[in-house]
Amino acid sequence: MEALPSLLTNRPDGRSAEKAATNQLTVSRQVRRMKVACISTPEAGHLVPMVQIAKALARRGHQSALITMDCAREKFAKGCEAVGCEFVGLGKGIQGSDAGSGLASELTSKGLFGILFRHYDQVMREEFREWLQTERPDVVVADMVTLGAVKPAKDCGIPLILNVPGPFELFKNMSISLILTLCAVSFLQTRSLTDTRIMLQVMRDILPAFSNHLCLVNSFFGLDTACPLPPNIIMTGSTAPRPSSLVLRETSDERFNAWLQRIRGMGLRIVYVTMGSMQVLEPFQVRAIFEGLLALSPRCAVAWSLKPEQQAFLPGGVEKLPAQFFVQKWLPQGEALQLPDVAAVVTHCGFGGLNETIAAGKPLVALPFRADQPANAKIARARGLAEVLSPPKLTASAVSSAVGKVLNDQTYGARAVEVQRSMLKTGGAEACVDAIEHFVEHGGCNELFEAFLAPELSQRAFAADVDSRRSCGSVCLVSSQSVGCQAQAIQELVLSEVDYKVREKTDEMFTKGKQVVAQMKQRHQQTVQQHQDDIARLQKSSQDLEAENARLKQLVQSLATNLASVNTGYLNGKDFSSPDSCASTTAEDPEATTKQLEASTPPPFAPQARVDADMPLPEVPGFPPLPLSPVPGTPGAPISLAESLGQVTPQRTPLSLMQSLTPTMEMPSPFTVNGRALGGMGEDRIFSFTLRKADGTELGLNVSHHNSEGVLLVEGIRPGGAVEAWNRQCLGSAFAEKAVFPKDRIISVNHIVYNPAAMLQECKEKQLLKLTIARGNVSLPSAPGQAGSASLRADASEFVPGVTSKPTTNGAEEKKEPKEPKDDTPKEDGEAD
Fold first, then answer.
1. pLDDT digits (tens, 9 = 90+) for 130-151
2. Which residue segments constitute the domains of the chain, with CATH numbers given?
3. Residues 6 or more apart in contact with residue 282 via CB below 8 angstroms
4. pTM (whole model) above 0.70
5. What CA–CA distance (Å, rounded) separates 223 from 212?
């Protein structure tokens, strides 16, 4: 039987035969129509090659079924049905990694791909087993990491073929040491022991699968370095669609086609950007790519396949994109890359995307992140068709420089076309179909698996000793030369990952530091603004208080003026600006005193019955005219700004209107001598004053009296009383003679004249007291015709002493001897309240 690799290598391409001259022969053969199950995880890098194989089988006339997670139905079901391929969705209702939510999306964002693949396998395994038992296909073609298909196929007795969407360079030196190194790198990336353990189990399961099954490696020599192949390895070339002889002018996406027409009208080249279905870009990476492509000169258009949750990182969002940018969740990448308008590709350099770019003959800028991407990017750069950027230190200037270099240097495009020619020498998906037909037609290839691999590539490698490895040294893939290359590759990979992690952590700490500084600056600005607001508020309060203070001063002055004007009008124009104004005019002029008393004392009120109900009320006399000149007064206590703002200051005496004014003068005494008012000349004098006892304050006089004299004799002044307060005010001014002293005689209290008992009782009961004092040897005046108590007139002035100390006694006491009829002996001393 002809060797399988040789058979596939010598098979001519169908399109090449169509272009050949007419003298060439067309060779055809008959094969049995097969029923093939093609199964893969829903991640695009693994699923897309499987979709292309399933479609090629359907176009060849075989009954093929594409089996994957149901979340991929929207993207691939329609295309499969168009060529007669059945789409079978497993795990209905479970979201994929590109959904933006769900377990798969969360695991992808954290880079936990080991757990992600295990999650897919657990969901698909039993449903796939049921499907196999029902449909019984001839063969199962499974993706290399979809290990959930291996055991169900084995249990059902169905042959299995593995599809390997990656370069052979990555697998030809596979060994336990390399697996452990890859797992260590995975742990550095994820910091997850669970994910690392699962990745180790996956890699351990892949080794025996490679050694026990036919493997279709979707690579080609020209990208991979030429080397001998094990008999179960078939290099099929990339499964990506080959360019058609016709120039592609549009895709299956109508919205994208409309944008293409506008760009063609602008005469711009297109840069296509794709990061695959699994890679999640950081905000700074999205901004760097956008700003770098926007700054290209000459200007270029950009078609970008970007996940919705990452579109929010674009400056201004999708709504404010420039007209030359087209950003969408998903684009028909295989078709878009074939467009002649696309001049370069920016990619994460996953193997599927790399091969699609090579199939289209486009140069690229690689932005590798993890897994096989750094190795793929390294191969592409070594072949001269790519520039490589570092994701952790990606900047707009680096993007602009790399893309501009690839666009403007024609050697990148030339090398891309050369590598494309090498790819087109392979059959791709058609070569995969040929291998599957050959495999099924000849009942498998068990003869290919007779210990042709080193023990390191078998399941026994985990327990094999050194002697067993030496015994198979002649067929071991890991030669002494490859060990050195492998060690160097491991070193570069580890250093690259360590550098990536260090830069990532540095950038993270720097970002946090910037955020902290920005927050501190914001708090400082808020504090300064708050203090400025407080200062402005206090200044406003100060101005308001100053205005209120001025208004109160003006009001006090106005009240003082009005009170002085009232006194002047009612007291016949006499100046009562001092306590002396209420004193008697002279003691030697009783006639004048009597006239003043009669003029200033209102007549007694005598109610009269109204004779006629309609009789009008008597006219009210006119108010006396007010003087224009104000009476000067003593300024009140100033208002303090500190006290108004609530600061702790010593307690101040409350502002009193009466304390702010000059002591108001009293009305003339109601006593007259010889028809004249008494004066106040020398030591012998008669004077009057009015005072009001404050609440809790006593009058503070010790008095005695004789009924025969009809006066109260002042024996002493008690501290804390109203009289003592009056004396302090008089003695501190120019009217010291108005003070009350011992031996003074009280001849009238509230118009009660020459009645000691009644005057003493009036002093106890009343708060408003008008006292008439006789001092020295002055002759006592005669009492007016009507004696007794009288209320204070509206125009009378009064003195209200403030409370200076707590009174020592409450009320008043009077000590008198029991009255004896017709006895003129003097009585004992008493106290006036």
1. 999 999 999 999 998 888 888 8
2. 254-430 (3.40.50.2000), 497-601+624-833 (no CATH)
3. none
4. no
5. 26
